Amino acid sequence: MNRRSPATDCAQALHVIDPATGGIVPPLHVATTYARGSDYRLLGGRVYGRDEMPTVEPVEQLLARLERGVEAMLFASGMASATAVFRALCRPGDHVVAQDIMYFGLRAWLRRLSSQWQVALDLVDATRPEELRRVVRPGQTRIVWVETPANPTWDVVDLAAAAEIAHGAGALLAVDSTAATPVHTRPIEHGADLVMHAATKYLNGHSDVLAGALVTARADESWRALRQYRHDDGACLGAFEAWLLLRGMRTLYARVERQSASALELAHRLERISGVRVLYPGLASHPNHDVARRQMEGGFGGMVSIRLAGGRMQALEVAGRLELFLRATSLGGVESLVEHRETAEGTDTISPPDLLRLSIGIEDVEDLWQDLEQALRP
Predict the structure, then answer these.
(1) Residue 357 a catalytic site member
(2) CATH 3.90.1150.10 applies to domain 252-376
(3) Is the entire prediction scored with pTM above 0.90?
C-alpha cells in the first residue's frame, strides 16, 4: 500500500507484530546481557543491554519515521540528549550559537560549558535571521542551536533561514522541537541536521517517563560520534521507560491535536480579557505568527503563556486560585499545568515575573476555561 500517514504509524507502532507470540504490542525485554553458544558466538547478535536493548529499537524507528530522519537515538532524559550534542561534537576553541529564549536548564548548562570547556558562546534572538548571520563565525561555529516554539514565550524561529545561515558557516543546525512535536513541525524538512526532543513531555504525554531523543538527517560522521558518546557515557534509556514511551507515542496525534485545538480556543478567549497579554503563536498578535503559519502544520501546539498587568503578585495570585490546572513543573501531559516560571527557575531566570506558563491537557475545554475565568476574575 502507499506510504501510511504518520498518525497511523503512531497508533499501530509501525504495525509491528511480535514474531514469537503474535502480540500486537511490542514486548518488554529487560535482559541486560545476552548469551553465547558453546562455540562462543552470540546467539542473537547482542552483547550487552546498555545501548542494545531490543525494547528501545521500535521507539527509535518510529520517531525517525515521524521526523523524516534516517535514525534516532533515545537517552535517559531530555538534558542528556541535548548536552550530548555539545559534548560529542564540540572541542575547545569551537564556537556555539544558541537562542537567548530557550529552556532555562540548557541555557545555564551552555554557560558552564563555555567557561569550563573553552567553547565560545553567543546567545542571540534567533527569530531574527540577521542576528544569527551577524554572530556565526565561518569555520569556527560548530553548532547553531534553536528551540521552536521556544519556552516560555513560544517564539518561532524560521528554520529554513536558520539552516541556510548555519550551513553557510559550516555549522550544524540542531533544533529543540519538544513543544512543536512532529505533529506540527518536522525540522529536518526545513534543513535541520539534528532534532532533539525532551521525550518526557509530549512524546510520552503521561508525566511518568524521563526520556530524551535525537533524530538525524544523515547517518554521517557527526551521528557516529554521537552514537559513540552515548555508548561511552552510558546515558541510555532503560527498557521499561522505552516501553512506556512507545505506549505513550501511540496516542501522540490524538493527544496533540486535541491539546492544540484547546490551546488555540483558550488563547482567543484569554486575549479578550483586559490586563492579560497572551503569548501563543497561533494568534495574529504573536510577533512570529506569520512564520508559525508557514512552518507549522495542523495547529500551533498546546503551550500558552499569559502576562498579567498586575505583575508578579497578580501572577502568583492567579496561579493560587486555579482549581483544575495543577501547579507543577513540566509540560505536554494529558493533564493541564500552570507554572510561574520565574519562581521555578530561580535567581538566574530571565522569565518575566508577570508570566504564567500554561500546558493545556486533554480535559474538556469548557472546564479549563471556567477555571481560568474564575482565577482571573478581579
Answers:
(1) no
(2) yes
(3) yes
